[in-house]
Amino acid sequence: MIYLDHAATTAVHPEVMKEMIPYFGELYANPSGVYEFSEDVQEILRRVRQKIADSIHAEPDEIYFTSGGTESDNWALIGLAEGLQEKGRHIITSCIEHHAVLRTCEYLETRGYEVTYLPVDGEGKISVRQLERSIRPDTILISIMFANNEIGTIQPVSKIGQIARRHHVFFHTDAVQAYLHEKIDVRKMQIDLMSVSSHKFQGPKGVGFLFVRREVSLPSFMHGGSQERRKRAGTENVAGIVGMGKAVAVGERMFQENHSHLRKMRDYLIKRILTDIPYCRVNGSQKERLDGNVNVSFQFLEGESLIILLDMEGICVSGGSACASSEHTVSHVLQGIGLPEEIARGTIRITLGVENTMEEMENFIKRLIPLVSQLREFSDEYQKLKG
Ligand code: PLP
């Protein structure tokens, strides 16, 4: 199998798995216990919190463990909206956010909040000027993703942070795809809240964190016990949190190496696709792009058919985001960057991971080229064009 869908999820790193195992066995204590058995577990949670805080230049009491990206996004948006409803009920986001943000915004609209969905340009970037113009006296939150999960475009986060701070509006960013791929300094970038998910960087699924700057008073989301400083009740996913901490350590240790390896494979793939296959285009930003992302539209074919044929050859790629792929609709991100529907339909997302090799890239291209030609045989338009 050649797995090229790392934006959907990644395999847990062997070092991470090894680190987690004792917490299913001999170290099973509930961290809330008052005995020594629990203290060891409390200590490891403390260390992971510190490690994560250091990785983004935050303080440990600004890190809240959650069940992942979706929960962090929901908590950030709903929590802030409810907490600040006396100040205002206007939120600004972009039209290409992950559904964890978009559907939460839609929910808030049903609760009397107003949401501005900023458009993006052809590369998937918002305009910071337009963002600034959209701020109103009743704006309470700007939520713009760090990097897009489908086309890999990285937003001008520092500029957004500056604008938000200048206008005294909170800034949340969904950094699920960017964390450990891009350097993030929440202080310098003036980020107030940030969502992260562990399974995108070789950690386990069902765990993540929300960074909340100390000055932001975010109401509790899960009500119950006193875990996470009374903000997020529920017995901690200890093994998951330990695994996430180890994945951060491994990701940081390998940062430079991973960065150049992914880039090399990505740039090679883009070059080969664009030179060897006619009538195709790479979507997203050429410069501000995630290391492992190749999003490409082939004219005169259905992306879904290509995905199935690739799957039959043991190659995993996706159409849009994993969450949208069962909906059979054209991705809102591709619509957002203005792709005509017939081109958007021929799109596949290839996302590379650290365990991929150049040999796999070569193999992938070798199989992709004939499959694209094979599918285009069914297109009357293509046949006409060929004469
Ligand atoms: N936000 C982005 C940008 C994502 O790519 C994803 C997952 O694909 C999520 C949020 C949801 O994260 P989780 O799967 O941890 O709920």
Report the top-level CATH class of the largest domain: Alpha Beta
Give the count of structural domains: 2
Helix content: 40-55%
Number of DSSP-assigned strands = 12
Taken in chain order, the helices and strands follow as EHHEHEHEHEHEEEHHHEEHEHHEHH
Strand content: 5-15%
CATH architecture of the largest domain: 3-Layer(aba) Sandwich
Strands ordered across the widest β-sheet: 2-8-7-6-5-3-4
Helix-strand category: alpha/beta
Can you give the mean pLDDT?
Answer: 96
- Which runs of at least 5 residues are low in confidence (pLDDT < 50)? none
Q: Can you tell me the overall shape?
A: globular
> In the CATH scheme, what's the topology name of the largest domain?
Aspartate Aminotransferase, domain 2
- Total number of helices: 14
- Distinct small molecules: pyridoxal-5'-phosphate
Can you put this structure into words, describing what you see?
It is a single chain. This protein has 387 residues and is an alpha/beta fold. The protein has two domains: 2-8 and 255-376, Alpha-Beta Complex (Aspartate Aminotransferase, domain 1); 14-253, 3-Layer(aba) Sandwich (Aspartate Aminotransferase, domain 2), CATH 3.40.640. 41% of the residues lie in helices and 14% in strands. It is built from 14 helices and twelve strands. It has a seven-stranded mixed β-sheet with strand order 2-8-7-6-5-3-4, sandwiched between helices. Strand 5 (139-143), helix 6 and strand 6 (170-174) form a beta-alpha-beta unit. The longest helix has 22 residues, at 255-276. The chain is globular. The two termini are 37 Å apart. 48% of the residues are buried. The model has no long low-confidence stretch (mean pLDDT 96).
